[in-house]
């Protein structure tokens, strides 16, 4: 572990108070002693949101607040994130995460929802929609935002080894706080507000070492393009300025789904943090469609 002194990633007290008041966390028991930590805001049709590898449920606060009059937005902390129980395997698959998602939907008695997956969350969302379990029948529409395609395809074997080595080396060398300081800036565009920058840094700084290592294995072993669900209502969006999953890569996901790619202007990878109004409008439309 690096001995470099990394400053703590903090949010203004007013933002933490807003998070606790508008989007509080609670633990949902899902059996076998496991829990999934969720945040919930609003009333009405349910939107379930799955975050990416460097984030958490709290990152959806601004989007949830904008949708509160029309929808109930529920965001999970993925297994191994926040207070959510990690999965048993050191290298869990997309199907393992999707099974935990189904347990959460059961525990919350959610019978119908729009399922939103951002980045790595898109891999889990697509797996849930593809599964033959009851989870897929509950998904009215699938929304993939800046989807990560993973490195599981045979053609990406060299990139897979490089990504795994680089991500784990950064974690080992800098720790979670150092990683947040170094990598969080890539999640937003150069023109992002300080508000957006604070939120992506704070969320990444709250990662858990074990859960992040499991998520790295998911990223390296998954193949979204081979795991897309059969024809169903789908929307695919991407930040126009995304450098992590750029529009050219997201365009291929949209093409495979048979839909146009929808660009979020003036947004990087964490588009729903940087431009929550635009993403909330997209999700509001997804409820109606």
Automatic annotation (TrEMBL):
Q: Where is the AB hydrolase-1 domain?
A: 47-281
| Superkingdom to which the source organism belongs | Bacteria
Q: What stretch or stretches form a coiled coil here?
A: none
**Name of the protein in its database record:** Pimeloyl-ACP methyl ester carboxylesterase
SUPFAM superfamilies to which the protein is assigned, alphabetical: alpha/beta-Hydrolases
Q: Which InterPro entries match?
A: AB_hydrolase_1 (IPR000073), AB_hydrolase_fold (IPR029058), AB_hydrolase_sf (IPR050266)
* Pfam families the record matches: Abhydrolase_6
Q: Which GO terms describe its cellular component?
A: membrane
